[in-house]
Amino acid sequence: MAKTNPGRFFEDYSDGQVLHHAVPRTVTDGERALYHALYPARHALYSSDEFARNCGLPQSPIDDLAAFHVVFGKTVPDISLNAVANLGYAEGRWLKPVYPGDTLRAESEVIGVKENSNGKTGVVWVRTRGFNQRDEVVIEYVRWVMVRKSNLDAPAPEAVVPDLKKALDPQDLVVPSGLDFTTYDFAQSGEAHRWGDYEIGETIDHVDGVTVEEAEHMLATRLWQNTAKVHFDLTFRPDGRLIYGGHVISMARALSFNGLANAQMIVGLNGGAHANPCFAGDTIKAWSEVLDKAQTTVPGIGAIRLRLVATKGGEPFVLKNEDGRYQPNVLLDLDYWALMPV
After folding, report:
1. d(Cα 248, Cα 228) in Å, to the nearest integer?
2. Residues 185, 54 contacting (CB under 8 angstroms)
3. How far, rounded to the nearest angstrom, does the alpha carbon of residue 250 sit from its chain's CA centroid?
4. Mapping DSSP to helix (H, G, I), strand (E, B) and coil, where does residue 142 land?
5. How far, CA to CA in Å, does 206 sit from each of 68, 105, 202, 308?
6. Taking a C-beta distance cutoff of 8 angstroms, is the pair 84, 147 a contact?
């Protein structure tokens, strides 16, 4: 009997299947230090215990996307080890902050399968939940991946395509218990722009750029224990080692500080697409569009819905061609909700 894990292939998935992912992980302050070493992350709530306490939290949490990466990494050996590509996200919610000392584990439910017309690959949809040591759900999201078939003669399963929300409703968003922006320190946060200063339809060029280095990407994939072959094995794709999509997301989010420094907490993920592959040597830039705004149930805290676009050069604010396809320089199109002081 083979002792090693070759990963699941498309024919190994079925609708309703539940996957309990291995290797829980205790996060520490080192997680934050490494995250901030990899990305120019500067949002004050995740940089200062004192700033976080002034906002009603017991201490500074782990960055929202760092928590996402930890949970995501748990799922890779069971979901995307043999993936061709991660295709998209939906219905993501951050339900509780993750603090140093918390231990995270993950499980996923298969909610859709559909074989592609080439008979060689198929798409698998999963809903993943991350739990802390108290079995509280701290994060949940849906993602779908294209996965290779191992046995090309395996019959195609009955197609099940989940009906997913195009966007979370504002009432779906969870404001962390105790969060309070009534004494928010705009001087310490880095910008004076608050929720009321942004208009729906407004676009923001975040100006700065960061060139992706191979060593940083490899450190990131190891840090999050993401063992997908397309990110580790230089021989797995003819065009080279693919930069982990989460690396692009975090880099773009960090760049968005310049213009959105007070969009402090990510609480919802409406959708996302890795539009084109990213490779070492590409220089990532970012721009945002304000898609919507909503009041929350907590006085002084507003929710802002943002489109975050990462590019590798080119003019900002150009997303798709006339035929509706993404421009070749667009790497990421992410739609999310964040909390901001009113």
Report:
1. 16
2. yes
3. 8
4. strand
5. 23, 34, 13, 10
6. yes
